[in-house]
Amino acid sequence: MYYNSAICSKYEHDEIRLRLMHGTNCTSFCHCATLASHDDATVTYYWERQNCSAGTQFDSSKGVCNHVGDFVCEGNIALAYLITTSLHP
Predict the structure, then answer these.
(1) What pLDDT tens digit does each residue of the chain (89 aa) get?
(2) How many Å apart are CA 58 and CA 27, to the nearest integer?
(3) Which SUPFAM superfamilies match (predicted)?
(4) Which partner from 18, 44, 75, 80 sits 20 to 30 angstroms from 10, CA to CA?
(5) To the nearest 10°, the Cα dihedral for 68, 13, 50, 79?
């Protein structure tokens, strides 16, 4: 899980940038942001929590908050699989 005090890497900052915050039903995501620039030219990054607006959820396939129902929430895939398999053995 990612949250305000978790450190992320330069690679995550430059290449990944955004990740779903698990356990939030896709209503929150984390953004790898700059925490501090140091005198030796190194930079420390951290995961900063962001919330989607009402009626939207984080669509990890597009990296944006999208309208509920326009996609399958990544955090609900396992639940959808269990429901489908229990209905259709």
Answers:
(1) 444 458 999 999 999 999 998 888 899 999 999 999 999 999 999 999 999 999 999 998 888 999 998 888 876 543 333 333 334 44
(2) 6
(3) Invertebrate chitin-binding proteins
(4) 75
(5) 40
Residue type, 21: M
User: What values do phi and psi take at 5, rounded to 5?
Assistant: -95, 0
Stated pTM of the model:
0.71
CA angle 53, 62, 69 (to 5 degrees): 55
Contact 56, 68 (CB under 8 A): yes
Q: Cα 45 to the chain's mean position, in Å?
A: 16
